What does this fold into?
Amino acid sequence: KQEVTQIPAALSVPEGENLVLNCSFTDSAIYNLQWFRQDPGKGLTSLLLIQSSQREQTSGRLNASLDKSSGRSTLYIAASQPGDSATYLCAVFLTGNQFYFGTGTSLTVIP
Amino acid sequence: DTAVSQTPKYLVTQMGNDKSIKCEQNLGHDTMYWYKQDSKKFLKIMFSYNNKELIINETVPNRFSPKSPDKAHLNLHINSLELGDSAVYFCASSQGGSLYYNEQFFGPGTRLTVL
It folds into this structure.
């Protein structure tokens, strides 16, 4: 049974700091892993998608890595900004056309 | 705001009624999806439309009927609602119809409660 855990549950950092969000999953039989951002009352915006055969993806100040064998992914955010404050979710896509979402990390970037 | 939006956010209704949930995306995507949240973090796909054509139709009761009037909209109509239909339903969209290769963007969800 797939379990997806994110650590930490909440994180508060001063503006300009680099930070790392962690995601771990128990079953490595995934097709891909996606990182999302959620703002209060809004839907989920995709940040990065990593295929199961890939090791990392980069977009602007974001870098996501995937180690399928150990069941881990990290999202690195460089030079954090107050606008980065949101909840960050990772999700794995499984056989049977199913998404399994992580527990989420609530990020606050203090100006 | 460019996003995937759903209406209503909450829907409470009596058993046996017919109801619809609407979904709109202004991301210019060509594929839209409906998911049902089976547990707090587990979403299972119900339907997928690519350019208004049905491409995925999972095993769901035929009381559920999706309708896509255009690429930007995918509505979900449910007939004769049952208690077991109570759940959160998520709409999503992507550019490209591959579930494995295309990033999906999700709406905020619609919480359906059947009494």
